Amino acid sequence: MKDKQIEKLLTAEKRRQQKVVNLIASENFVSSDVLKVLGSELTNKYAEGYPGARYYGGNEVVDQIESLCQARALKAFKLKSPKWRVNVQPLSGSPANVAVYLALVPPGGTASQGPASAKATVGRGKIMGMSLAHGGHLTHGHKVSITGKVWQQVPFGVDEKTEVLDYEHLSRLAKKEKPQLIVAGFTAYPRRINWQKFRAIADSVGAILMVDMSHVAGLVAGGAYPSPFPYADVVTTTVHKTLRGPRAALIFSRLEYADKIDKAVFPGTQGGPHLNQIAAVAVALAEATRPEFKTYAKQVVRNAKALASELKRLGWRLVSGGTDSHLILLDTWMGGQGLSGKEASDRLEAAGIIVNKNTVPGETRSPMDPSGIRLGTAAETTRGKKEADMVKLAQRIDKILKK
Ligand code: DSN
Asked: Which residues lie with the beta carbon below 6 Å from any ligand 1 atom?
């Protein structure tokens, strides 16, 4: 490489990744094919529009790539065209979610500026989503995100005692608030979601059901977590978490919503698609349909369960008491008996174990120094770790945190 400064930093990052234990629940290690395609000549190409309908010339190859990626995405989740369509252009998860709302929910909320008359509610525009503090994502309608400024969030959380979703409560909330769209999905909820119950709740108020399966997409593809597709109208997902692809996102939708969503992605919220990224997504999706990926997905969950049960045995409190996925929320603060999430994360990092600090339901501390940490097993499972390694890892974590 001619740029020695960047080369040096790339080498340093590669070494850092090699030497640490990576328990970031939203990260993974992609294959060498995915990496190769990301660094290919496809990055030179502009192709605003969709296959067969572009604003630039020279698309004979990239049209095939985008169409192949779409076909592989449907195949990976056992979906049939034309009942389902997939948009493979979203640059990442947040723009994907914004595009869905833009397509399907009229803007709403309260105007924050201007004369008092303009401060009235300017539209319904309600999105019912899990609050950030209970494991939802910023783009599920949080006030600091554009999704909470243009639309109005109807937030929901987990049950205080059980720390799992209470579907009866969700049903009552939906009936009271009448959201246009309900988002089922999370970034920090360790349990299975009952997609069918969400469908029934959405139907009871005539809402669209969108599932954001970003965290569990790889587990769904590998048959290790229930598929939301029989129940959802729209499914968004990032590709780079358990699905083990490049940083990118997909929007699957039932045919009746597909044209609106395509328009909301381009030209609604994005310009030219990143074709190197789309080709790399295609590679990852083909990898996710191989039998080895099924084995991988099941092992990810087995590893998370092994890590969780050993941590529990050692006296740690896990939010909801355990996990059904790749993800564990560890309450390190334990009502002041333990460590703050930041202290825990810093101590682990100093010992070469990378996690992220995380709020726990009913958080009493600040998001910058919350009560817990989030652990995930997707990346270390890619490296071949098994249950016995997880038991040892839990013991290592315990020692570091109790020091
Ligand atoms: N930041 C991602 C996560 O870590 O879960 C979600 O966007």
From this structure: 26, 93, 137, 187
